[in-house]
Known about the structure:
With 417 residues, this protein is mostly helical. It has 18 helices and no strands.
Amino acid sequence: MLDKVKYTLPILLKWFFICVLIGIFSGTSSAFFLISLEWVTQIRIHNSWIIWFLPLGGLIIGLGYHYYGASVVKGNNLLLEEYDKPSKVIPLKMAPFVLLGTLITHLFGGSAGREGTAVQMGGAIADQFKILFKLENQERRTLIVMGISAGFASIFGTPLAGAIFAIEILYCSKINLKTVIYSFIVAYIAYYTVEFWAVKHTHYSIPEVPAWNGSILLWCILASILFGLAAMTFSRTTHFWGRMFSKYVSYPPLRPVIGGLVLALAIALLDVQKFVGLGVPVIVDAFTHPSAAFDFLLKILFTGFTLGCGFKGGEVTPLFFVGATLGSALSLVIPLPIALLAGMGFVAVFSGATHTPIACTAMGIELFGFESGMYIALTCSIAYLASGTVGIYSSQNSKGTKYHLYERFRRRNLKNL
């Protein structure tokens, strides 16, 4: 027994030390990113003419990735692929490349998020410890989970959801108990690191949560299905624009230039300023004032086009925008409190687009409180089932329960033809 303790204790201490390092480095990088993102956003807001430099920003991003960042251009999908089949350490340059690319996108007015940036920075930082600690390839899986967990937890201020998201998005059946524990430890360390740097996250609230009854249940199911369909539309739109630009523009650096020109013209000629950048003020407003009926569709279009043509950033905050504004608009026809519907949509569309209903339920509870927990859990689950099998991450292994249900349904229909 004593020999076993002597053997196990150094290993546990080593991994705890790795957790601390990854949490601090990832949390610090997220804090720097959040501060920088706010800075470039304010520059864009106070200098609307800067939108005309969006094609130039696209050219910088396109040339940079084409000639110097080809090994990391897959972004989040590279993390998923390396977890599924570990082969070589993710280059550390992924972190500065995606950081600069995202800041350029937001500075000049692209519609994108921030989670992808934080997750990629966290994953790239974490994977370097494979070399420092001479770890085996299989142990890299644990590092990648920790990096994703730290990045997600620190960028949104939701450590519980961050830890679960990293586990759930990488397909739970391949993850052991040790990895789960480390994922939670590093998520909280990264979260408190951002708190240490005094960087604030956006706060939301659902002040009114009605009691359950049969009528409310039916309305929730209807709203959840609509959230799932919105998630499906978002995912397919992003992939569609990516395919179109790849098919018709053979030189990759030219894709964001053309896309940037189209976006600049649309933003300058149309009243669509609220659809550029993160759109956090619109999300906050959706909790108290009904959104316009087509706000969620326009955000899907602008974000899908921005990311599809080659600009950088995440998809999650735009998904929050889509869900919150759709829920807010539905409050005009569905007899539920506006804040509750906006909050349900906030996490449900995210759940459907990433195939992570458990993590999204945890996020909803962390952001909005336990009182709305039953509503959040129900809508995340139904939206997940209603969103189809295509998500925002093309390399995600989503062949779980939902996939088999869809396959069974598809085969039955084919048999009946």
